[in-house]
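Before relying on records like the one below, remember that each one covers exactly one chain. Contacts with other chains, cofactors or solvent are not represented anywhere in the record.
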Amino acid sequence: MTEHCFWRFSRALHRAINDRCLNGLDDLIHEDVDRALYGPIDMFPFLGTRHGKHAVLDVIRHIAANVHIRRFDREATMLSADSAASMLRYSLTPRDCDKPIALRLAQFAHFKAGRVISMRVLVDTFDLVEQALVRPIHLPKIINKGQ
């Protein structure tokens, strides 16, 4: 049995971010890749949608220039012949300071001929924004508990 392309892509992505070297990753991304990282684009410009290998690699370079992956845990992963879904917890450190960032995300990928053709990533952005602001966000009560 051969290794699923998701595992190769995952290892290459983490290596690219931590080593700031995209060698090997570029072969695992389809030329017509469509990628979306959902979250507050105004605060984190690497979020949003990108189309094409060059644009996706630019985003990965931007992420690699700004953070280092300290740890990641897969909570769950589901694989099919040409797709994968995973719930992940990351511990990141910005490259310009030692303040850790905890991040949780869901990732959905589709593959064509062993290369990523589509990726959607949903980030727990509320927690991420609180950490970036270094303070809790206080939201107004929507429902009165007494009613």
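Helices lie at 5-19, 53-66, 125-133.
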